[in-house]
């Protein structure tokens, strides 16, 4: 990436965070459910969408604050552009590493539109991948060079993925100690 373009992206990202933080405090429990997933409260804790059975016996949704802290993105609500570019769904309840088994999901996550512009979604998936023994920057490089080989590496025991990918409840998700690729 050209240094001036990279600097422009960094400045844009910094300004967008500043504007969000100066306009209003983000409180997960106050967010509408269609903005909950991929939001981070002003406290720095991730927001999670949870479902419950309402008084009429129907399935309903609420936004809650998790215990997972994101250090650099407090008060951040992911843009619709990033949700679309990264191929994620705001109606997701919990998260699962099974998404990495979809070559379409991995291709969208690793695309420049997502990987270089959507730090919250990338950070969440970086940590999820790390929990499965996969280094997301290496997976994305393999995806860029040879998508079929990336999937083979992910599926093989020697490719950095833990055998038997499992579903993870997002409220129990802890960030990896490795720094994100930004």
From TrEMBL:
The keyword Glycoprotein appears for this protein: no
Signal sequence, start to end: 1-24
Protein name: PAR1 protein
Key words, A-Z: Signal
Pfam families for this protein: PAR1
InterPro entries associated with the record: PAR1
